[in-house]
């Protein structure tokens, strides 16, 4: 069985923040942070492919790219990238990976490592529960989902601060599947939608971590299309979160950031993994451990003021605050 850890959740849910802890475990391969799996899910959600096709494509991709990772193929070597080998797995001898032959004998060794759970392949996406159930029942893959759940208010406002709705429906560096039907046979630049807020996070070399900056929403106005899109996103997240919580596979982002060692114990208990002690401490620093009050917004007056500043309709303000209240109560 292909041995996988699947980090699940929508964009901005915090999956990336916990990667430094995941990669501090032993026998972990470099996580793949590519859009392919999300393209398959988006194609399924758009009605362009069947559930069976989604599961076949996703399974083939994970099998193929886990093998590629074993060979050191398609490895991110851009040192400044968050997901680079240098930043996440500096102890890996890339030369030894490249020395492995793309031959059946090596492939059998790779299969044995997976069957013995001596290797962990990591993928990030947002698999629908129905797809998980089909892959789990019909394909030789242990998906081992971890659903990263984050507060509705943060998801709503961070998607606006990063211009994520408009970028998801236009030409952008996100390269979203749902943007493709909207592209025209004209110059690329005329169709580009930028990130607006490229300075929300800064890497501080001397501290070995990232620092996050509050976004100034002055002058930013939400569109009705964005409101509808984001309310649908919050509802899907709530539904998926309830499902994965029932399965014992949900983790709260705010708890991980405020108590990373508790998350480490969760990983040890669930997957029987061990950790490189020095890497784990560096990973916690890189993740930027913060007290709960800095990562979970509980000031409803402040939240209402921000949503009103964005120009949200009153029914949208009430819905976001209701979801945030439920999130805090169930936390």
Quick summary:
The chain is of the alpha/beta class and 331 residues long. It contains 16 helices and seven strands.
Structure overview:
With 331 residues, this protein is an alpha/beta fold. It has a single domain (2-162, 197-330), classed as Rossmann fold (3-Layer(aba) Sandwich), CATH 3.40.50. 51% of the residues lie in helices and 9% in strands. It has 16 helices and 7 strands. Strands 1, 2, 3, 4 and 7 form a 5-stranded parallel beta sheet that branches. A two-stranded antiparallel ribbon has the order 5-6. Strand 5 and strand 6 (209-212) form a beta hairpin. Helix 2 packs antiparallel against helix 3 (51-71). The longest helix is centred in the last third of the chain and has 23 residues, at 224-246.
**Average pLDDT:** 94
Q: What is the class in the CATH system?
A: Alpha Beta
In the predicted model, the low-confidence regions spanning at least 5 consecutive residues are none
The third-level CATH topology is Rossmann fold
Strand content: 5-15%
CATH architecture: 3-Layer(aba) Sandwich
Overall 3D form: globular
Number of strands: 7
- End-to-end separation: 34 Å
| Helix/sheet category | alpha/beta
Number of domains: 1
Order of helices and strands: EHHHHHHEHEEHHEEHEHHHHHH
For the report, how would you describe the main beta sheet?
A: 5 strands, parallel
Helix content: 40-55%
